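tool=predict chain=A
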Amino acid sequence: MLPATSEEHHQGEIRYRRITAIWKGSLCFLFLVLCVLLLWVIVAGQTESVEKIYYPMAAILGMWMVGPFFFMFWTRSIQRVAILVSWDEQSLHAGQRHIPWNQIRKIELATPARSKWQLSASPMYALYLKDGTRVHIHTDHLFGKKELQSSLSTLQKTLREHQGPDLD
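tool=predict ok
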C-alpha cells in the first residue's frame, strides 16, 4: 500500500506488486508449456498405449485449470498502473467503478464458493451497499494473507472516517 501521487488527486490507494503478477503468471505459463509438451509427445508418437490415454487428459485438465490464471496474471502484469483500489473524499474507485462513500454500508473480505470450472477462487473485497446490493473487487491472488488483512483494515478504517462514528 503506497500513498497516491499528487497528479491522481486520490487520498489513498491499495497497490499490488506487479512482480507478483509476473512471477505467478510465469509459473502458469511454464505449466501450460508442460501441458503442450505432453500433447506433443503423443503427436510425435513417443508414447505407449496407456500413456496415450493419460497424457492428453492431464494436458487438457492442466490447460483448463491453469489457463484462466495465466490470463488473469498476464492482464494484471501489463496494466498501466498497479492499483487495485483507490479513493478520495467522495468515493472509492475500483477500475471504472466509482462508489460514493455514503452508499457503502460495510466492507468485508470474502471468498467466492469453489467453482467446479476453476481450481481456486480468488479472495475479494465485498462492498455491501445501502441499497442491498454488493460490489466485488477481486484481488486475483495478488496478496498474501497479511497483505489482505492489512488492506482490508485500511479500507474499513477509511470507510469509518468518511462516514462518521454513527455507522458500522
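The CA atoms of residues 35 and 59 lie 4 Å apart. Confidence is low (pLDDT under 50) at residues 1-9.
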